[in-house]
Amino acid sequence: MHRRAFLLLPLGLALSACGAGQIEAPPGAYVIRPSDAKRIEARMRDEINMRRGFEGLVPLTYDSALTQAAALHAVDMSFQNRPWHWGSDGSSPVERVRRAGYAGRFLGQTISESFEDELITLDAWMDQPDTRAVIMDPEARDMGFAWYQEPNTGKLWWTLVTGTTEVAPGPFPMAAAF
Predict the structure, then answer these.
(1) What pLDDT is recorded for position 60?
(2) 3-class secondary structure per residue, 127-178
(3) Which of 18, 40, 78, 93 is exposed most, by the fewest CB atoms within 10 A?
């Protein structure tokens, strides 16, 4: 219970800071305003699904639990001032999606620290084999995507989490009965 409260406090502070629209970013920096959130989420989902479609993969849909896990981790990375997959409480991505209530199976997580917009960030993820594999995982059906922008610098902390609620096939397909 104490770990969850610890992680929710920074999220509340992050949302209140972003809601005030008081980002002090360098001139020309990409600043996300609260009114931009839905557009950015849709643009990221649509761009990912277009790229998955080119590979014959099914589209991803937003999952609220995965998005909550992504949001908490974006804030926590800022708190730690380092882009990495472990939470300040020692939690793994698997633990965080379970805590957020995701009923499916965690597949992967991509993270970034940047001053760039979401599509430039996606391009960078797609250029790296390990992060591209998370986004293009054929098993993935669900996604969570979130960011935290530091009010004092404008730095963005991005997190994308994927999962699936589909049952993985067993090692041997069932033979048809004749």
Answers:
(1) 98
(2) HCHHHHHHHCCCCCCEEEEEEEECCCCCCEEEEEEEEECCCCCCCCCCCCCC
(3) 40
